[in-house]
């Protein structure tokens, strides 16, 4: 009995779609369902497998192969495909769809019926000829295929046919092609379809890069790295890459391309910008509309051209609108007094659309009637300068009496000079009509030493009023064109010091009255003496002062002068002598401690840091500590307050710093480093270490308790509550602690009010030790370009610039702490950015005196902030000075607010910047919002502002106390500046 018929009847299944063309990561090598003609597969023996081709409803063939010799034993029927070219495949997948009858469903077949068949393959480089014989042994077995589902039985006892799908991988395939073979050993099978494919990662566009079709590796765990090529009008940012996975999926996109200039991304491609738009930079940004006053006519523009009469400065970005030169300044005005001429104007009505507006003032001096005008050249002096002014005013000094001056004020911006338009100028003509003094008489040399020359001269014959002072201008004869110095004196003689030996100098003298300056006397040339000069002994009181200043004790000299002038505090001279002597023995060649004084040991020099802790800190049994409450959070863990019991002693309050759990070895070392440092100190103004807990958890550092916490928050909480003497007492304590540290060679690096602790008797103690860790910890510390973190506002410029930390840089920080204390915890430099702080210090700006600050203290601050670090006072100078102030509180009565006259400044008095407009000044103290209040109240010049009292400031509408304080502090400094300008010599 043949089962073929039975089988055919049950086999007629609906047509199944066997291949899925929407699978882009498969390349099909063979799909029997898609073959339209004869398949032409071979069978061995010919009557084993049967090829049946039916037609579907669309008249396409359905190729099936059947075999069902279940009744006969020893079946060995082979079906072999045609030769299948491998193409790029390294590994192929064979997907079989078939039905298989279970032997139980066929009567009388037990023993011969099978339920599996074998799948085999053979690789060859070319198809075998038609005459080639079939050798089963040439085929390698891929797998024995069994049905997942064969015929199953329904509840009603009917059998339902199920289609099986099996997929097998074969690889690596190395020859050019292969045959598949199906071996039947006695089963009842219908092979409905065979699909052979390999996998690939299909070509794709990703991140504006194109990736080609890529065949995965045979080894499924390794990926193929593929480099993409940027699409047209795109350029590489980071090399675009994708990885092709074994299943034909792209993985891990890296790098990218971006659209080039003039092009923007759209649907994965880079399209040209439309006319009227531009894109100046490569990047995945959209094209932008041309900025105002510019246009683009073509597609793909990288920039827009400026309209007529509009320009771009060389550094203007393409994104900026085109701009034009400004119109002329408006309403030029002048005011004149005896010594200074102030020019003021209003900004131009058209700034040209730019912000970089500056002004140039050109000066011409005109003689009497009919005489031609000529450039003023170096005759007059402009403060701050004649060119590149940012404000709308300038002071003109040193003009000659009885002359006519014409000033041309020009507004300039970044595109001035482009195009060919005439320069718009505003003109002011000023006549200095008052009669100035006539020339002084002949200048004589009285004597000369190696470094000084004494001069005298006859007073002007026609002074036309009281001589206010004389100005002596001098320069090295050889260096005439390069620079000159000047000095002033009230009497008709002077000793000019600081000169080079054996050098010829040229001197000019001129007199000043309320009406202005006389002309300069004719040149007088005098030489200094050489080393053997008999005149080489410097004498007289002025010389003593000069010597002292040159000796580097400028602070003391200034203060001496100041205090002498105020007619009090004679003790200071003695103190100065003692302090100088002490310093000479103590500080020669840097740090040399007194004999017997211990020197600080850096714990980092210990190979084993634990050893350092135990050398300098006592181990405390934790049972002696009682933690009461948490008072703050440190970087390493909580800071608590509590009590420490010591046998035979009174229980004492302590602060306990803890190291939180889960720390690393490095954190533990950094945490304990502070104890190793603190344990070396023994001074009433340094926080005292009681001991450490290292042998149990948590690790702790126990220090004395300071009832009032950190100084900055303490002062802010008690704003205005203390007398000046109390504040000076606190400062004295800090200076004394710092003197101790510098004496034993420890540089703190982070001295600031936040790192000072205060006890309930207002005693201040220096805390927060730990070298670099301190800075890591400090929220104020910012990274600098030289590396490392630095609290910029508290740090000396040399430490910021090249990490030159020293006791002298600690002195700078101490000056800042003084300022914090005197301003009750105000933030140094207010809201200025760190960068602005660095720049303004570099330009010579220093913090003004806080409101109510005694002159002597602000002077001390200024000396701590000397740029030259060797000129700063040492901590022992500071302690001595503060001690004297405390003993003579009368010296603290002169507040900066009250200063009406200021002593002659020595050469090293810091220079302050001169603000010329109210706007500049308010900008510099970040109070620009009040500009209109000043102007509306009639304060149009800084001169007038410098006379304002705190009541005036309140009256013009500054209601916030902090702002009042900041403005008044700065007004005090302005006052000093005016005095300083009027009274000091100038260096050009
Ligand atoms: O400003 P404060 O009250 O003072 O808050 C901080 C907080 O712990 C985190 O450092 C306070 N603090 C630190 N050390 C001590 C101490 N020895 N005595 C009292 N308070 C301390 C500090």
UniProtKB/TrEMBL annotation:
Task: Identify the enzyme class.
Answer: transferase
Molecular function terms from GO: ATP binding; transmembrane-ephrin receptor activity
Q: List the disulfide bonds.
A: 68-188, 103-113
Report domain Fibronectin type-III positions. 325-435, 436-531
Catalyses: L-tyrosyl-[protein] + ATP = O-phospho-L-tyrosyl-[protein] + ADP + H(+)
The alphabetized UniProt keywords are: ATP-binding, Disulfide bond, Glycoprotein, Kinase, Membrane, Nucleotide-binding, Phosphoprotein, Receptor, Repeat, Signal, Transferase, Transmembrane, Transmembrane helix, Tyrosine-protein kinase
- Which protein are we looking at? Ephrin type-A receptor 6
Instruction: Please tell me the species this chain comes from.
Output: Chanos chanos
The primary gene name is: epha6
